[in-house]
Amino acid sequence: MVQHPIAKQVFTTPPKPGAVLELLKPITWFPPMWAYACGAISVGGAVSDRWMYIAAGVVLAGPLVCGASQAVNDWFDRHVDAINEPDRVIPSGRMPGRWGLFIAIATSLFSLIFASFLGAWVLGAAIVGVALAWAYSAPPLRLKMDGWWGNLAVGLSYETLPWVTAAAAAIGAAPSPEILAIALLYGFGAHGIMTLNDFKAIEGDVQMGVRTLPVQLGIRGAAQFACAVMVMAQLGVVALLLQWGMNSHALAVAGLLTIQALCMMRFLRDPVRLAIWYSAIGVGLYVTGMMITAFALRALAV
Asked: Is it the case that residue 89 has pLDDT exceeding 60?
């Protein structure tokens, strides 16, 4: 029997471990892992009593669900990447045949199996997260084709969903309105963070019809929108913390926001060149504010 050439390539030439790791992009695991840790801290109680459970949730949010989403995205973006970033693992040929697709499916299924051992709340959230990952990248929805919907889906998946999941899993019930409000604000603010990532691929996005915000609004308009969304979300957090009497925490978040605003002024002068620079600084300050806010919520829960 003659073996199909694609099947032969897939099954006889497995990718190297380094290529698989590159496909899963460990650098992207941090945001959902951090958000999950924030959610676990925000509910109060003794974290030391459930540290193994929290650690398992962090692994689920980062290497598993987020890793799966990166594999899904790279497989369905391979044609765009061939223009924007031809050295990526799939267009470069280091991930041969359909191995990228098989890894995306396998990691998605394994994520759900892993989540099933952590309870109904975590499994439900994992199902939502995996579904959003495929809806974002894969046809027919392919939400990433429109920067408004795609960036919103990723922001909520990376920040809101892990935070709420960790909080719900820790108490075995729906999180408090305060936790839901904070998690939603930080998730919406992450829409701006996702827009920062779009400046590096404008040429390929235009050619392939991907309507990111830099394509739709122009470079300056998208940069202004990204900054505005991040600022408004954090101003909302500061306002809520003040309303709850968490004045010192509100002052700390406001201070971090002030530094971000100063960096934004430089970023807006040359968004394409400075997007990576601002992302490295601004996002670090943004997530630091998330943890400060998590401890404020923890103090409220006591």
From this structure: yes
208-232 confidence digits (pLDDT tens): 888 999 999 999 999 999 999 999 9
Q: Is residue 5 part of a domain?
A: no
Three-class secondary structure assignment of 210-250: CECHHHHHCHHHHHHHHHHHHHHHHHHHHHHHHHCCCHHHH
- CATH number, domain containing residue 37: 1.10.600
What distances in angstroms separate CA 143 from CA 36, 170, 274, one per listed residue? 24, 31, 26
What whole-number distance in Å separates Cα of residue 253 and Cα of residue 168?
Answer: 24
* Over residues 19-43, mean pLDDT: 93
Percent share of the chain, pLDDT over 90: 73
1: in domain: no
Whole-angstrom Cα distance, residue 295 to residue 262?
Answer: 26
Q: Are residues 57 and 165 in contact, defined by beta-carbon separation less than 8 angstroms?
A: yes
**8 in a domain, yes or no?**
no
Number of domains comprising the chain:
1
Give residue 10's pLDDT: 45
pTM of the model: 0.88
In a domain, 59, yes or no: yes
Sequence-distant (6+) residues with CB within 8 A of 285 are 256, 257, 259, 260, 263
* Local structure of 146: helix, strand or coil: strand
Q: What range does the domain containing 279 cover?
A: 14-301
Average pLDDT over residues 23-36: 93
Q: What's 153-190 look like in SS3? A: HHHHHHHHHHHHHHHHHHHCCCCCHHHHHHHHHHHHHH
